[in-house]
Amino acid sequence: MGYIDLSIRVEILKRPHVREAKLWKPVEGRDGWIECYLCHRRCLIAPGKYGVCGVRLNIDGKLYTMVYGLLTAVNIDPIEKKPLMHYYPASSVLSIATVGCNFFCKFCQNWEISQSRLEKGLMGVQFTPDRIVELAIAYDAQGITYTYNEPTIFYEFLEDTAKLAHKKGLFNTMVTNGYMTPETVDQLGNLMDAATVDFKGGGSVEFYNKIMNVRDPDKIYETLIAMRDKGWWIEITNLVVPKYGDEEAHIRKMARWILENLSPETPFHLLRFHPDYKLTDIPWTPVATLEKLAKIAINEGLKHVYIGNVPGHPLEHTYCPNCGYKVIERYGFMVTDYKLTQDGRCPRCKYKLNIRGQYIGKSIGYPIPIV
Ligand code: SF4
Prior knowledge:
Largest sheet: 9 strands, mixed
Strand order of the largest sheet: 16-15-14-13-12-11-9-8-20
Bound molecules: iron/sulfur cluster
Number of domains: 2
CATH class of the largest domain: Alpha Beta
Shape: globular
Distance between the termini: 30 Å
CATH architecture of the largest domain: Alpha-Beta Barrel
Helix content: 10-25%
């Protein structure tokens, strides 16, 4: 955990991106120390220090977020980019991010923002929740997605924006590593409508320890249960990293867990790895590996298994689990054909598919940067 010189505390506290944080408590018996329970790191933070995510600072025994509305990305994205394949298909979302993250993935493709820490200086453009919601409406987005870096760590801005988004008829989704605590899920409650929960390396403890500096990935399953119980729409992804994180046994275990605890129709995405950040000596995941793992998940009983980051692959499409008819056709992030009936049934056998929200049909297929 890093240290900040608090001799300029008065000036720091005046900055618009500094706000008192939520989800923390004082540590008994340790004067001025704080426990942050926003994520499973549950950092114990001394005065003048900040937590592992690099953006939550203890000033005189109170925890402050340093990134309230200080955004590093504001884009319009197709919802399929999240990926959410069964939630308001072909809608668009306004995506936002800050700096900081509670993970240290050696392959992070957004490492410039995720691995930035307070002592390196904060970056971003200041926004308010109102402005974000206004922009979403102006760009004809149907929802807001909290994404790119781990959204849990900018919780306070997320919560305020999500409230306002709901008031204006927009939905909220997040792309998360799933390491937030069940208390955080509880606090968010029905403000969050959908989550893409990203596993890496099959959720293997060894992979998380060595490649991501995360101690206990099994905690993610506790969080998933909390999300399920709140009624959030859930899609699960797993990044398949050649050599380090592509074991069949891990995919089998994950598929079984989804079957037993979520649903056979929960969308499950196997994502292709590409070399980035500190893991540039590993090649792209062979498509044959993704196909082999997809077959395992399908044989275990999952009905909607997708292969991601391989545009044009047959497992980008949605097939009816009952008769096998191709009901949604995609290319990359774009929906190219949508055949389901208005009430979400297969036109051939009338089976009702597991889709939440109506088809929007405004697929843009690529991100549009606003900031
Ligand atoms: S959100 Fe940040 S400060 Fe809080 S527990 Fe997680 S890593 Fe630590």
